[in-house]
Amino acid sequence: MIQSPWTHSSTTKIEEVKMFLRLLPILASTTMFWTTYAQMVTFSVEQGVTLNRKIGRNFEIPPASLTVFMQVSVLVTLPLYDRVLIPFVRSWRRNEYGITSLQRIGVGLILSTLSMVVASTVERKRLKVAHDIQNLGYTTLTLPMSVFYLVPQYVLTGVANALIYIGQLELFYRESPYGMRSFTTGLCLGSFSIGFFFSSALVSSVNGQTKRDGNLGWLANDLNDGHLDYFYLLLGGFSFCSFLLFLIFAKWYIYNHPWKNSRTFDSDSTCATPTPQVQSSDKN
What does the pLDDT look like over 165-188, one tens digit per residue? Predict the structure, then answer.
């Protein structure tokens, strides 16, 4: 009589499922970053439309091209991380890996929160300039404020992207069961769509809640009539809460393949405790 595989699971298969389930909280706590990333490539472009984008007399920067600063920051961060930071930390901490995947993700989440605070500060300054011009009786589509004020928030988001994205892929590939690496890597990439979907839902919700009593809302069609700075602060708050959740999950996480002489983001012991080797009970 052939026994159904659904009625009997080997110890190895059970342990592999546990390995996979331990990764899900880490994935959930990093999804918020992609929500902030989505806003950075949408509302920041709208901000750029209202700012002075001229270089010289005849050239004007297209607002959508401002995301190049984000991509450049990613390209600069990766070689600096691999060739400068990691060798330094290896020699300093005297271990093979230097920085663990969870540590890399944690730093990226901090930078993501900081990028939202910077974006809110820049938008507050932009609104002040716009309101001052309106109070003087002038009407202009372009404010006397350089578009390069937006560069810091793009750079911070780009560096956070490099740390979180690479850290996620490294963690999910290294810590997932061998037969599930393709699936877990795809799941990691799927967190992009979850973050962008939540971004759309959040915009709709904020619009609905802030347009009451005849108000134009935080996200008005004309940014000068809204409060995009409040929305950025809200995203910063969500990002910080996401970071706190990540700290909790990282503290509880035990590496399946311990980093030699290294530590997790929050705990001195999680990395140092290796997972016992499990003997397979499969029968040929």
Answer: 888 888 888 877 777 777 877 887
